[in-house]
What we know:
CATH class of the largest domain: Alpha Beta
CATH superfamily of the largest domain: 2-enoyl-CoA Hydratase, Chain A, domain 1
Number of domains: 2
Strand order of the largest sheet: 2-3-4-9-10-14
Number of helices: 16
CATH topology of the largest domain: 2-enoyl-CoA Hydratase, Chain A, domain 1
Shape: globular
Oligomer: single chain
Helix content: 40-55%
Number of strands: 14
Amino acid sequence: MKRVLLAIGVFVFALVALSACGGRNAELEPEIIHENALPFLEDLEYFQVLLEENFSLLDAAQRLRGVDFDEMISLARADIIDAGEGINRNIFGNILVGRFMPFKHVGHFWIVDELIITNESRALIRQLTSEHESEPQLPIAQTVRAMEVLEAGFWEREDVIRWLSERIHGDVAEAMFEALISSGVDLALEVYAEWAYGRCFADVTTEIIIEDEVAYIGFRNFLFDLGDFEEYIHEFYERIKGFDHLIVDLRNNPGGFPFFGRFVIAPNITQPLRAEGLVFFREGNRNIREMLQRLDFMGHMELELFYETWLPKNEALNKWGFPKDLVIYDIARLEYANRFYREVHPALLSRFDYRPAFDGKIWVLVDEFLGSAAQIDSWFVHGTGFATLVGNTTGGNYGGERIFVRLPNSRIEIGFDLLYMTDSNGRVWEAGTIPHHFNRPGVDALQTVLAIIEDCMIE
C-alpha cells in the first residue's frame, strides 16, 4: 500500500514539476511585436490615458453599455500585435472603431478618423458627392467605414445598424445593412439616397392626422439653421388653431441647436420655464489645459445652459443642500461639481394676439436614437412639465463642452464631451430621460399617443 502511495506521490510531483517548468518557460518567452506595430501601440496607450484622465463619462459608458474599458484596451492591443507587419493607419482606425464602438453616443465620443478611410473608399465618396452636390458626406463615409469594420470581423449586424442609425432612421439603417451584406456599399448608398431625397429628408414635416382634433409636426434634426421654416411653422399653428392635440416628433433626432425651444416652447408659454440639474467633471490634464483654466466658465451658451460656481464635489453638494440620500452613480472618479439650469422665456407672437400659438395638449415623441440637443429638450420637457413624453427612454449623448485630441503617431483624432451631467435627482443624462408613457405593445410612439387620445375620448 505504501508503495502505491509513494508511486502516486512521485507521479503528482512530476506533473507539478513539469507544469512549473512549462510556466517558467511561458513567462520567459518574449512577446513578439513587429516594429511596425510599435507606433500604434503607443497611440493606444496614449488613448487609454487620455480617456481615463479626462473622459468624465468613462465609468458611465462602461456601466450603461455593459463593457469593461481595460478589456477593450487589451483586445485592441492584441489586434494591433496580430496585424504585425501589415498594420497601417487604416487598419488601426478599424481596430479603434470596432473595439470602442460601445462608447459611441456617450458624451459625443467620436473617433474622427471614421471619415478617413481607404483610397478606394475616398474615390467612391468623391464620385457620389460630385453626382449629388447636396449629398451629406457623413452618412456616405459612415457606410463605407461600417463595411470595412464589418469585413474586419469586429462587428455584427446590430453594431452596424446602431452605427448607421446616428443620422439615419432605424428602418432605413436596417435596409442599408441588408444591402451592404448582399451587394456592398453602392447598393446601400442607393437605399440611403432614395430615403434622403424623399419626404423623410425634410427637416420639418407637418400633417393633420384628425381634422379639428390632432395635428403633427416632426423635426428630423436640429443640425442646420431652421430659420427658413419659421414662417412655415407659424402658418401651421394658424392652420391648427382650436385643435385639441399637437404631437411633436423628436424621434431619431441627433440634436444640433435649440430650435425646439424657439419653435415649440417659447411661442406657447406665458411664463418662463426653468429646469435645473447637476454637473461634474474629472480634473484631467486635457480638461484643465483645453477648457478649464478657470473654474468660473459659465456654460454652453448656444444651448441655453448656464452654470453657477465650480467647487470640489463634496463641498458643492453640501453647500446646495441636496438630499443626503441623493445617489449619483460613477461619482468616485469625479472631482468638481456645479449646478446648472436652463430657462426658456415666452416669445408670444403678434399674429396670435400675444397668446400661445397652440393652447391644446402637447405630446412629444422620443426614442433611444434621440440625443445631444434633443436630449436636453427631452430633459427640459420632463423637468418642467411642458408636455407629455411618449416612446422609449432617450439616447443621452451630451456632456457639455467638447475637446478633440490627435493621437501622436497616427494623428487620428479623438473627440468627447468633458462633463458628467444629471437631472436634479442625480440621473445621468447618458442613461436617458424616461418618458411619461412607454410605447404600447406592438405599436410605435405615434400609434401609442393616438391610442391614449382615443381612450381619453371614450372616457
